[in-house]
């Protein structure tokens, strides 16, 4: 009986060693900008956190923020280890807390995205110039790039009849479809999703550096590399991986390495709006 008892004690000591307990109670915290309502974001990101948990051999749990400012403050404060951010959110997190890019998203095999001005399919509005005096829906008030794109398209905000910040892209779509606003701005993947379902695109921005995965500035370099490798391993040709990528956004085709220099163009675009 003694050998059996000794084996049991050894197993229990391994199971409840300080390392294993720490490993179990300190999961990787994954944050995100609020592109959609929390329930939708949870649905979109859960397959990714499950994949990462399995790939890293460590729990990865979601910690969603209600808005862009919240997502930035969470990664700056170190309350999340990695987070899904817009280009502007990354730049602010980098400036405020030395946050580092892990990977960028790829859309249809390309490492950039576009913002698109949209109207209802039956709207008489045909061009950006036609937006003068009309009601316009923007997303998060902290999303400076959206304003920069509208102004860059030739429509100063003061020439609009009215504009408001609705927070999420799904809110913008609903408000335009329900005639609450005449037009709005969407991320390309959302615009394409609704293009044949009541929404028409009247303007596309130039190519912009894409949404990304960003890590807190003081994340352990070894953990950083493991997380980066897990994202880069996702292959859209693998059916299981494709399901993970599609859940995040149907237009995405994977992730790629990137650098702060790639986002310099966004710094220039938003500078007048700070």
pLDDT < 50 runs, ≥5 residues: 1-23
Tell me roughly what share of residues is in helical segments. 40-55%
CATH architecture of the largest domain: 3-Layer(aba) Sandwich
Head-to-tail CA distance between termini:
73 Å
Number of domains: 2
CATH fold group of the largest domain: D-Maltodextrin-Binding Protein, domain 2
How do the strands of the widest beta sheet line up side by side? 2-1-3-10-4-11
Q: Could you say which structural class the secondary elements and strand pairing correspond to?
A: alpha/beta
Average residue pLDDT: 91
**What's the total number of strands?**
11
Notes on the structure:
This protein has 274 residues and is α/β, with parallel strands linked by helices. The chain has 2 domains: 25-111 and 209-265, D-Maltodextrin-Binding Protein, domain 2; 115-204, D-Maltodextrin-Binding Protein, domain 2 (3-Layer(aba) Sandwich). 43% of the residues lie in helices and 20% in strands. It is built from 11 helices and 11 strands. α3 (38-56) links the parallel β1 and β2 (60-62). The protein is globular and about 55 Å long. It starts with a helix and ends with a helix.
């Amino acid at each position: 009986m003694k050998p059996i008892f000794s084996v049991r004690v050894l197993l229990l000591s391994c199971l409840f060693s300080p390392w294993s307990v720490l490993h179990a109670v300190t999961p990787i915290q994954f944050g995100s900008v609020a592109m959609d309502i929390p329930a939708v974001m949870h649905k979109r990101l859960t397959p990714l956190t499950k994949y990462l948990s399995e790939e890293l051999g460590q729990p990865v749990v979601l910690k969603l923020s209600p808005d862009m400012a919240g997502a930035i403050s969470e990664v700056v404060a170190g309350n999340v280890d990695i987070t899904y951010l817009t280009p502007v959110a990354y730049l602010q997190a980098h400036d405020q807390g030395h946050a580092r890019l892990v990977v960028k998203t790829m859309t249809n095999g390309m490492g950039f995205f576009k913002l698109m001005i949209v109207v209802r399919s039956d709207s008489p509005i045909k061009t950006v110039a036609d937006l003068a005096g009309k009601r316009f829906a923007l997303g998060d008030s902290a999303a400076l790039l959206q304003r920069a794109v509208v102004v860059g398209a030739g429509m100063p905000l003061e020439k609009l009849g009215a504009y408001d910040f609705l927070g999420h892209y799904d809110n913008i779509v609903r408000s335009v479809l329900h005639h609450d606003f005449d037009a709005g701005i969407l991320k390309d993947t959302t615009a394409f999703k609704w293009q044949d379902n009541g929404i028409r695109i009247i303007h596309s921005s130039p190519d912009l550096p894409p949404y990304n995965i960003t890590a807190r500035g003081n994340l352990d370099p070894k953990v950083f590399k493991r997380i980066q490798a897990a994202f880069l391993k996702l292959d859209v040709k693998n059916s299981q991986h494709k399901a993970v990528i599609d859940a995040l956004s149907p237009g995405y085709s994977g992730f790629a390495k990137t650098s702060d220099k790639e986002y310099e163009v966004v710094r220039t675009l938003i500078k007048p709006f700070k």
